[in-house]
Design brief:
This protein is α/β, with parallel strands linked by helices. It folds into 2 domains: about 15-260 and about 460-480, 3-Layer(aba) Sandwich (Aldehyde Dehydrogenase, Chain A, domain 1), CATH 3.40.605; about 265-445, Aldehyde Dehydrogenase, Chain A, domain 2, CATH 3.40.309. Helix content is about 35%, strand content about 20%. It has helices spanning about 50-65, 75-90, 90-100, 105-130, 160-175, 195-200, 215-225, 240-250, 275-285, 305-320, 335-355, 385-390, 405-410, 425-435, 470-475; strands at about 15, 20, 30-35, 40-45, 135, 140-150, 150-155, 180-185, 210, 230-235, 255-260, 265, 295-300, 355-360, 375-380, 395-400, 415, 420-425, 440-445, 460, 465, 475-485. The strands form 6 sheets. A 7-stranded mixed beta sheet has the order 14-15-16-13-12-18-19, with helices on both faces. Strands 9-8-7-10-11-21 form a 6-stranded mixed beta sheet, with helices on both faces. The protein has a 3-stranded antiparallel beta sheet with strand order 5-6-22. The termini are far apart. The structure holds nicotinamide-adenine-dinucleotide (NAD). Nicotinamide-adenine-dinucleotide binds near residues 183, 237, 260, 292 and 463.
Length: about 500
């Protein structure tokens, strides 16, 4: 089902460098598709080395010569609050464009737009509340930490919730006084071009924010290898993270890596099963299943297994799939035909590996576009590919377990370690499991609701480093230790023997 085309789409998507919208130096462009038809609806400038060079130079100038890094935190905070206001004022337009470009259901895209505003508000507040360590050695020394922005931050983002994930990096990078070059995902460049107008209206000086569109292997790669960009914050696939890690190594860059996931949702028989059902269905089918923290492996205690699988399949069959711009839609169209083929490939693999209990086909009546039925596989063995590999679509693997030990072994038996969801009313079991599960983030009797002050990040192949709250401030700043003597200096006197 095609979506209604939003009014006033731009005629093309450009870069934004040093306060101006520009095409690529060599004029190169790439096609951008609408996911409900897979028709090309716009051309975007395809950044190459030369465009990244210009953006990095503008950002470098704005850092060394401009006012931004030297502003008082309160002044930057005011600008960040204005950015949040401007995002809130246009949240519906933002959601409309995001839905058009990504295929995400409109109600969920609206939630993501508001979260983007909240990210700016949060870091605006945090930066004025920032305090740093001071240590005293009584009568001898005072030591304090001098926190400084690092310079030009390279931000590389994925397509699943583009604008929100960009805000997650832009807000702390700018709050701490850095200047930035953003390289958004090539499947979904539309909403990123709104940043330029928002930042300008909020009073961000030219050159502080630079945007270069383009493919990962060209624009992204040039940013990673740029000598004047000392840190890279990357969110994307684990495999891409490995490539970036290697490419950044010769430059010894600061790296933050938010990578893939295959998170377990563990349902014990003593849990509130209705609440667990609501959360585990939402956990894998919201955002079209294109969610890094999706609970895409549901592990269920055997005594309630058949009942739970039956109820789960029933819910999945009733999930409303359709036009992403319809507020009744729960699952929209997957982002791009390449990704759609990947997800359908896993559905076919799953049919040979496990028991299909819901979905597995293109929904009836949706002949064009990247639509797939919410798909549920039961009796999935831990060695199955659909248990081990990130599918990043509305596909879930359900597996039974007989004991806490087996549940833990299953939960930890993959290369990823991003999130875990645990459903039980036994306090001791909940905390023991949380302690032992290999996941950067754990939710007990809850779906994915995150307090922005908490650390965000994964372990194992799901990431390196943590952002969130003060950890983001730490990533985007250097902490210089300053030591002051309170006494006469008593240095050993070298060179006085003659
Ligand atoms: P991807 O790795 O294909 O691309 C992410 C970004 O990296 C894009 O902007 C892309 O152009 C760029 N890129 C690709 N190759 C590059 C290279 N060689 N050098 C520099 N940049 C390069 O990921 P995707 O398909 O866009 O996103 C989906 C993935 O993101 C999933 O694995 C998902 O789990 C993960 N993700 C993780 C989190 C998290 O916080 N952990 C959040 C959202 C998505």
């Amino acid at each position: 089902m095609p979506q209604p085309t939003p009014d006033h789409l731009p005629d093309r998507i450009q870069h934004f460098i040093d306060g101006a919208f520009v095409d690529s130096v060599d004029g190169a462009t790439f096609d951008v598709l609408n996911p409900t038809t897979n028709e090309v609806y716009i051309q975007a400038a395809s950044g190459q080395q030369a465009d990244i060079d210009l953006a990095a130079a503008a950002a470098r100038r704005a850092f060394t010569e401009g006012p931004w890094p030297k502003l008082l935190p309160r002044a930057r905070s005011r600008v960040l609050h204005r950015i949040a206001d401007l995002i809130e004022e246009q949240d519906e337009r933002l959601a409309e464009l995001e839905t058009w470009d990504t295929g995400l259901p409109i109600t969920q895209a609206l939630g993501q737009a508001r979260r983007a505003a909240e990210n700016f508000r949060f870091f605006a507040d945090l930066i004025v509340a920032q305090r740093d360590d001071t240590y005293k050695v009584p009568g001898r020394q005072v030591n304090y930490v001098n926190r400084k922005p690092k310079g030009v931050a390279g931000l590389i983002t994925p397509w699943n919730t583009p604008f929100m994930l960009e805000s997650w990096k832009l807000a702390p990078a700018l709050a701490t006084g850095n200047t930035v070059v953003l390289k958004p995902a090539e499947f979904t460049p539309l909403s990123a071009s709104l940043w330029a107008g928002i930042f300008r209206a909020a009073g961000v000086p030219d050159g502080v924010f630079n945007l270069v569109n383009g493919l990962g292997e060209t624009a992204g790669d040039a940013l990673v290898k740029h000598p004047d960009v000392p840190l890279i914050s990357f969110t994307g696939e684990s495999r891409t993270g490995q490539v970036i890690f290697a490419n950044a190594a010769p430059y010894l860059k600061g790296l933050s890596m938010e990578l893939g996931g295959k998170s377990p949702a563990v349902v014990f028989a003593d849990a509130d099963l209705e609440a667990a059902l609501d959360a585990t269905v939402f956990g894998v089918f919201s955002l079209n299943g294109e969610r890094c923290t999706a609970g895409s492996r549901v592990l269920v205690e055997r005594s309630v297994y058949e009942e739970f699988v039956g109820a789960y399949a029933e819910r999945a069959r009733n999930v409303v799939v359709g036009d992403p711009s319809d507020p009744a839609t729960e699952v929209g169209a997957l982002v791009h035909p390449e990704h759609y083929e990947k997800v359908l490939g896993y559905v076919e693999i799953g049919k040979g590996e496990a028991r299909l209990v819901a979905g597995g086909e293109r929904p009836a009546g949706l002949e064009d576009g990247n639509y797939v039925q919410p798909t549920v596989f039961a009796d999935v063995k831990p060695e199955a590919r659909i248990f081990q590999e990130e599918i990043f679509g509305p596909v879930v693997a359900i597996t039974p377990f007989d004991s806490d030990e087996e549940a833990l072994e299953l939960a930890n038996g993959v290369k990823y370690g991003l999130a875990a969801y645990i459903w039980t009313n036994d306090l001791r079991r909940a905390h023991t499991f949380a302690q032992n599960v290999e996941a950067g983030m754990v939710w007990l009797n809850s779906n994915n609701v995150r307090d922005l002050r908490t650390p965000f990040g994964g372990v194992k192949a799901s990431g390196l480093g943590h952002e969130g709250g003060y950890r983001s401030i730490d990533f985007y700043t250097d902490q210089q230790a300053v030591h002051i003597s309170l006494t006469d200096a008593h240095s050993p006197r070298f060179g006085t023997s003659k």
